[in-house]
Amino acid sequence: MGNVPNTPYILVVDDDEGNRRFLARVLRLGGFGVREAGDLPAALESAITATPGLVLLDYRLGNHDGLGLVSLLRGRGVDCPVVLVTASLEEALDDGARKTDLAGLLAKPFTLDELFETVRRVLSR
Questions:
Q1: What is the SS3 string spanning 1-37?
Q2: Which DSSP state fits 80?
Q3: Measuring CA to CA, how many Å separate 79 from each of 45, 48, 74, 112?
Q4: Statement: residue 92 has pLDDT above 50
Q5: Contact assessment for residue 41 and residue 64, using Cβ atoms and an 8 Å cutoff
Q6: Is 0.90 surpassed by the pTM of this model?
Q7: What is the pLDDT, as a whole number, of residue 1?
């Protein structure tokens, strides 16, 4: 399948290369344009260069947390929706996910149906 016409790309941000590549491959097979970033600086550069339609962001990025990336994006005028992917929903909420400008939370493990439902819901806004 090719990219869905007029669909903005999805930026998949995860420091685990296997997870990142798997999500990117699944989304591409679903017809979405995808870019990948393995750390906070690469994600910030990619989003500033060309604003994504959606950022699918892992909560833990090595020595950083994903919530910090959301603040950096907003501080640089990048106003795209962000879905936080986390294995510890409670920890993310305790760390301030409720107070952060997020389009959604996706708790690991999730099904591919849940992934596509979340992506489509957020992109349709």
A1: CCCCCCCCCEEEECCCHHHHHHHHHHHHHCCCCEEEE
A2: -
A3: 14, 10, 6, 26
A4: yes
A5: no
A6: no
A7: 41
